[in-house]
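Might I ask for a little of your time on a matter of protein folding? The record follows directly beneath this note:
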Amino acid sequence: MASNKQNEFDVIVIGGGITGAGTARDCSLRGLKTLLIERNDIADGATGRNHGLLHSGARYAVTDQESATECIQENMILKKVANHCVDDTTGFFITLPEDDLAYQAKFVESCTKAGIKAEILDPEEAKRLEPSVNPDIIGAVRVPDGSVDPFRLCSSNVVDAKLHGAKVLVYNEVIGFIKAGDTITGVKVYDKQTHETAEYRAPITVNAGGIWGHKIAGMAGAQIGMFPAKGALLIFAHRVNGIVLNRCRKPANADILVPGDTVCVIGTTSTRVPYEECDNMKVTPEEVSLLISEGEKLAPCLKDTRILRAYAGVRPLVSADNDPSGRNISRGIVLFDHETRDGIKGLITITGGKLMTYRLMAEMATDLVCKKLNNGNKCETRTTPLPGSGEGDVKEVSKKIWANPTTAQKATVGRAGSFASKIGMQSKEDLSLVCECEEVPESEVNNAIQNLDVHNLVDLRRRTRVGMGTCQGELCACRAAGLLGKAHGCAERARQDLVDFMNERWKGIYPVARGESLREAEFTEWVYSECLGLGDEQ
């Protein structure tokens, strides 16, 4: 075990999702010695299992004005400080013949009240601007929606936290708290890789565990009522729409189609699930059918568009026993000071909210941490760009780095922003593609392995999008495993990692395996079992 001094911090943040990553960044920017602990990989929970919508807040304008106002304010901030993570597509709220057109007026009025610009468009103009939209629409409203890459956003926050002195532990699980009377003074942690335990101490611990936050609080003797609301989504193989499409009605199932990178995502459902299922979400055939049928109402071309995979996440909602779906629970932010709430000193919980409001949640939590530590430094995250952001769009940044950027270099800039200048991309070997679908070069993969806490292929997927494209890892996974094996000096570890990765990919494919998707899956199985001899391990 390391010395006590090395294991002492000003603040410990539990949870490597976007809220925890944002809180660690905010704390470190204010000069606090910060430790971030995540039981798996960053963005492993709800952060990496949503549709990546950069909410304008319009979706909640009618039903939840507080959340709507928070969303539009954070929307404008993220477009400035996280521009390399954001695609400013705008969004349409469309009315179909089966919807109530009268709702549109109430919707626009509510948006205006929340500070959201909502412009009514002629349906013909909407169809001209977005050819994929249902041609039968009878109404359309334009709002400042967009899309955001949650993996990129979370990783950028972690990178900046580390640049400002934070320590980050992934694959480390908090198994208990250290107490002195009624005060939490630290945490006990189990390292899943070394199988060792360690203790880390700090006067303040922030619980940012999302839906798992109730368990973390429970270990300290506090109770938080959480509502595990499962949301299922589908990824389509092509980016059929350039503008986010929403149904202009109260939030319901499968009423958002979000374009992001090379694909588009339809979501979501909302179903209460038992806590014990939160670590192993499965998408049912019924959910897939619902998402397809409702998605086609937004964009009829989805009927003939190949589905890549299905996935699901769990929203971290604070419980409401009279709402079986969770649709009517506020997406507002919940901050608990357990000293005043439960008589437990040294513990704070930040929960609720959305991906869109993570920065505000982090600011609120850090404000409370600083108040308790008598730290007068102010929040800087409203104006300080994340690493990679703030220096223009892909075209501008690419030309600053290279005179004549290649397609792979431009793609890397799209993911890393101006940080691409720190990735060696000069030789043919550097620029050779590991993943053709997402244009990921070898140099970007090696950079992620060396600098971004990548331990396996799943981690690599979250940092670089390797395996996220049309082939779902059919060819790129083998190449990436080779680079990981070289970096770790262990071919057998790389071999097992490849098996685990392909099995993990299959979990999201089998609910939609039909037609072209099924033929592709059969071919992939043949490649790995017959050509590479990996059939026995699967």
Q: What stands out?
A: The chain is about 35% helix and 20% strand. The CA atoms of residues 101 and 364 lie 39 Å apart. The mean pLDDT is 91. The longest helix spans residues 491-509.
